[in-house]
Hints:
The structure holds two protein chains of two kinds.
Chain A: H1 2-19, H2 26-41, H3 47-50, H4 54-60, E1 64-66, H5 70-78, E2 84-89, H6 94-109, E3 115-120, H7 125-130, E4 138-143, E5 146-152, H8 157-168
Parallel strand pairs in A: 1-3, 2-3
Antiparallel strand pairs in A: 2-4, 4-5
Helix pairs in contact in A: 1-2, 6-8
Chain B: E1 3-7, H1 15-24, E2 32-35, H2 39-50, E3 55-58, H3 74-79, H4 81-102, H5 115-139, E4 143-145, E5 148-153, E6 156-160, E7 171-173, H6 177-188, E8 194-197, H7 207-220, E9 223-226, E10 228-235, E11 241-247, E12 253-258, E13 261-263, H8 276-279, E14 303-306, H9 317-331, E15 346-348, E16 354-358, H10 361-368, E17 373-379, H11 383-387, E18 396-402, E19 409-415, H12 419-431, H13 436-441, H14 451-454
Parallel strand pairs in B: 2-3, 3-4, 7-8, 7-13, 8-9
Antiparallel strand pairs in B: 1-2, 1-14, 5-6, 10-11, 11-12, 15-16, 16-19, 17-18, 18-19
Helix pairs in contact in B: 2-9, 4-5, 4-6
Amino acid sequence: MAHRLLVRRMWTLSVKDIRCLSTSTAASSSFSTSLQSAKTRVSFLSPSRTLPHTLPLTSRREVSFNVQDNEDFTERVINSELPVLVDFHAQWCGPCKILGPRLEKAIAKQKGRVAMAKVDIDDHTDLAIEYGVSAVPTVIAMRGGDVVDHFVGIKDDDELDSFVSKVIGQ
Amino acid sequence: MAALCRGRHRWKRTHCLRVFTRNLTAKYDYDLVVIGGGSGGLACSKEAAQLGQKVAVLDYVEPSAKGTKWGLGGTCVNVGCIPKKLMHQAALLGTAVKDAKKYGWQISGTVCHDWPTMAEAIQNHVRSLNWGHRVQLQDKKVKYLNIKGSLLDEHTVKGLTKAGKEIPGAMEHGITNVALECAGFLTGIGLDTTVMVRSIALRGFDQQMAGLVTDYMEAYGTKFAWKCVPKRVDKLSSGALQVTWTNTQTGAEQKDTYDSLLWAVGRAPETKALGLDKLGIQLNKETGKLIVGADESTSVPNIYAFGDISEGRPELTPTAIKAGKLLARRLAGQSTELMDYDNVATTVFTPLEYGCVGLSEEEAEKRHGKDGIEIYHAFYKPLEFTVAERDASQCYIKVVCERGGDQKILGLHFTGPNAGEVTQGFAMGFQCGATYSHLLQTVGIHPTCAEEVVKVSITKRSGLDATVTGC
């Protein structure tokens, strides 16, 4: 168990190091040096093959979830290490009910490389207004707390796949 | 809830000083604060913001005893016009299904209505409107605060954050158009409904027309308890409600059991909650509504009121919206135009709809004397009722005109299907000062119910049978 946790933390750190290239504090550099040996064991490109232990842990972290409140949004979307698609939808919106399952499918295909946060705009009106949502469905892609892409309205499966791939950076 | 407006007037000195004073001292937080995010409040605040004012809207819905709340948009959007019209439509569709069989549609078995399906569909639409209003306020840069507002003084609004009318009624106590409309659609979707009326129905409306409306409803299946006053309501062990009432004509006491009770006895303004009593704002003792001037001002400077909360005004959405917009323009110094409350067309959406614009026959008689007016009328039959074998006894048109001169139209009344749609066009003619000869010059669209309006020729005075045939 301890072994698995240690490996997971190093996995997380290595991802962060790769994304935040500009930061170079003493703490992170000391981590990065100690990670050199770990990196040889951890193959960033195909984690599922070299480290089967990490996969159940990453998939246990929910890939698709409903946002509960502002705190939850901050924690699981803004501070997420993964890119997150935020699906702003409403109960009264017909197209949202069509797009929802399509998004889930597109996310599932990525096997944990991207997460989806679902926001009901009637329950979280202020949040929706803050992100400039006017029509629904609106999908916003966030990475490192920043909005990197978005779209409004329905998209078909192929369009969604390419949107998601672009967000992940493939 | 209606809107209460406050404005600061520091800019009234000169236009150019306005910008300077706001930047230099910023003594006040807002140029305009609106309490009430309903038809009037939203229209006023958006107009003011568009004219460059710094505006805030306070809208708060106190949860009912059962915890029911609703969103931004006020009475009309949440518990008024919008759900009313949709439920009225649901009932009309029920009647249409019955008519359909006569037109050849093969509908097997009985068609029944599912309340939860309708309620959810309507509530979903209402929620989309709540959202739409929220977005609009954001776009127009109006600050929205979901807090309960009250007035501390003529420049200060206090806000409190925190902590009705949804029972499908089987019995109503009331005489308002709302009461009749509710009873109408409840009957239409298949519920056994009774209306209890203390004195008359549709007070303030033309009484002949009101009679036609209620006659149709009685034929349609709604029960009426005329001239009755409720004395007490007891909850039985079965959960049903036993209502005891007095028949004021016979003096007898009667009682009966109902599943639900709906009190449709008019609106009571929340003047205490608003803190109006402390500010000494003049209210009408009977209704509790604010007494306002022609410019929507109250007895306290800087405080204005319009919409349902103001005394003597029609309780309608379009008048609240227009009054709000004009007030915003006046406060911003852009115009001096006052709201014209005359010639406002309206429609009662009872099972047989009633649309009207202008004076009732009683009011016209009062103002011009019986000899000073000429009334043209007609009982007509909508073409669609023929194949459907529906009774059209209450489908009627009345045009009240001045007797002399050009015979200016004083009032126009129509009962029949789509009365709202029919009346709207004629309201414009009314606004332009239409006369009876204008009506005669207008060629009708055939075959419609509306064309019967331009064809009226039989006068009440002649005593002739007013029944007209289509072709």
